[in-house]
C-alpha cells in the first residue's frame, strides 16, 4: 500500500489550512487508498535554514527526520494557504531545504483560501518552484475556497459527499502517478 505524507504548511495562529490536511489524513485512512501522516510545519517549528540539508555540517535530528519522511513517502500532498498570491515562508523554507528528496516525487497540491477562488493563484508559484526541484506535480489539484465555512476545526467538511467525491478523483490521479513512478523504477 502506498504511503502519502501530507505537509500542513501554515504556521499562523488560527490557521485554516490544517483543517484540510486533517480531512485528507482521515479520508485516506478511512478509504484505505494508502497510509498517510501529517507533517505539520507548525509542530516542527523549523528555523530559517541557511543551507540546504545536504550541505549542513551538523543538521538537527528533526530536520533529518523530516527529510527521511519525504524521501520514504511514495507521494506528498502539500496543503498550502494562499498569502497575497504566494505561499508561506514556512513552506518555501522546507522546499528549499531539500533537493534530491523532491526528485520525481509525485506531489499533489491542495490550495486553501478564505476567498472564493480557493487559493488558485498560489498554484502557479508553488508549481514553478517544485518543477525547478524536479518534482512531479500531479495534474489534478484540489482548491478549497471559503475554508472556514467548508471545514470545521477537526477537518470535517460541510459538504461531506461532494468533498469526498472531489478528494477521490484527486487521489486517484495521485495514486496513478505513484504507481507509474513505481513501474518506471522497476523497469
From TrEMBL:
MF (Gene Ontology): FMN binding; oxidoreductase activity
Residues of the NADPH-dependent FMN reductase-like domain: 3-146
GO cellular component annotations of the record: cytosol
Gene3D superfamilies: 3.40.50.360
Protein known as: NAD(P)H-dependent oxidoreductase
Amino acid at each position: 500500500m502506498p504511503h502519502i505524507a501530507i505537509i500542513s504548511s501554515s504556521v499562523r495562529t488560527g490557521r485554516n489550512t490544517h483543517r484540510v490536511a486533517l480531512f485528507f489524513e482521515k479520508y485516506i485512512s478511512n478509504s484505505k487508498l494508502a497510509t498517510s501522516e501529517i507533517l505539520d510545519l507548525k509542530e516542527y517549528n523549523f528555523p530559517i535554514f541557511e543551507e540546504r540539508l545536504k550541505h549542513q555540517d551538523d543538521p538537527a535530528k528533526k530536520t533529518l527526520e523530516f527529510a527521511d519522511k519525504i524521501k520514504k513517502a511514495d507521494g506528498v500532498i502539500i496543503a498550502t494557504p494562499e498569502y497575497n498570491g504566494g505561499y508561506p515562508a514556512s513552506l518555501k523554507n522546507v522546499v528549499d531545504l531539500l533537493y534530491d528528496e523532491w526528485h520525481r516525487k509525485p506531489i499533489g497540491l491542495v490550495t486553501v483560501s478564505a476567498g472564493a477562488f480557493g487559493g488558485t493563484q498560489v498554484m502557479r508559484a508553488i508549481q514553478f518552484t517544485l518543477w525547478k526541484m524536479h518534482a512531479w506535480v500531479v495534474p489534478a489539484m484540489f482548491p478549497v475556497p471559503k475554508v472556514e465555512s467548508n471545514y470545521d476545526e477537526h477537518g470535517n467538511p460541510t459538504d461531506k459527499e461532494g468533498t469526498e467525491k472531489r478528494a477521490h478523483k484527486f487521489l486517484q490521479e495521485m495514486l496513478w502517478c505513484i504507481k507509474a513512478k513505481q513501474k518506471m523504477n522497476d523497469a
